[in-house]
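=== RUN LOG ===
request id: a7f3
mode: sequence -> structure
chains: 1
length: 347
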Amino acid sequence: MKKHNVFTIITLISLLASCDGNKNNEKLFSIDDSQFKIMYHNNDIVPLSLKNKDNKAIDSVVYFNNDKKIGSVKANTKFDFALTNEKLGYQNLKAVVYFEGQNTEISTRVEVVSSIEPKLLSYTIVNTFPHDPAAFTEGLEFYGDHLYESTGRNGESNFRKIDYKTGKVLQQVDIDKKYFGEGITFINGKLFQLTWQEKTGFIYDANTLKLEKTFSFDKNIEGWGMTNDKEFIYQSDGTEKIWKMNPENQKMIDYINVYTNNDKIKSVNELEWIDGKIYGNIWQKDAIVIVDPKTGAVEAVVDLSGLRSKVTNAEAEVLNGIAYNPNTKTIFVTGKNWNKLFEIKIK
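=== RESULT ===
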């Protein structure tokens, strides 16, 4: 039988006891959520204090939000956490409790929603053009006088330069069959393209469409839609998040969470930058949300479900694809496998 070092056994017993003790400590305290609201706004204050089950002598409490220290108190004094500068979305609150020569961590969370009630906007159809019903549309954007479209599906992904008035494909670039193509955007003379779950992006020369660089995402996210404000790229990942990317090094530098006044917008998809706002498709919804790129607040919603009745092919799927034409100051929209492209004006 193998002999164990006595010191090792003692150390293991101590560690196990320590772990059990820490679990017991966690049961001693909890963050008092009895006065919490179901939803908060940025002008609200979250009252933070502890429930102290066994009336332990608390020396101090340090509070954190999303792992950033927000304050500390002596004993169990109430701490008011102002949400003024916090992002919309979940605030992951943590308290480190120091008591009787020990410490333990406890946590909870609250949700911050937008204080803006979105307006419901209408639209008019200016023109209707043919669209390739075989195109599983992922991205749509104007560059110069032409419309560019990226398409998905495993083994069939490409992007193409299109004469939007006729639907004729003027140039097409197929991507490797191992990639599922997603959103595109033009910035600084380059065309950026995302892939869905491969965490890979491509950079092409905007004029020749020649591949110049392949890059890896620096976050563990999916690739969905893209747009830009001529300085930064904005990228959706299929959740409520829109990431802000530096196009020079492809690093994510920030993000927003897209929220209305009562809920987050899940599955934000194709994106377009129009007059300082982000217009976004929502996966499986025939609507566009208009988002403040600084806060993530949804300012308006455009219901485009009426376009579905005008699409005549049976294979047509969800609305996806938004392209703003600065020459006509109109918006072009289509959907996955739609046989029509609509030029609209939003009222």
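=== NOTES ===
The longest helix spans residues 6-28.
Residues 28-112 form a domain with the Immunoglobulin-like fold (CATH 2.60.40.10).
=== END ===
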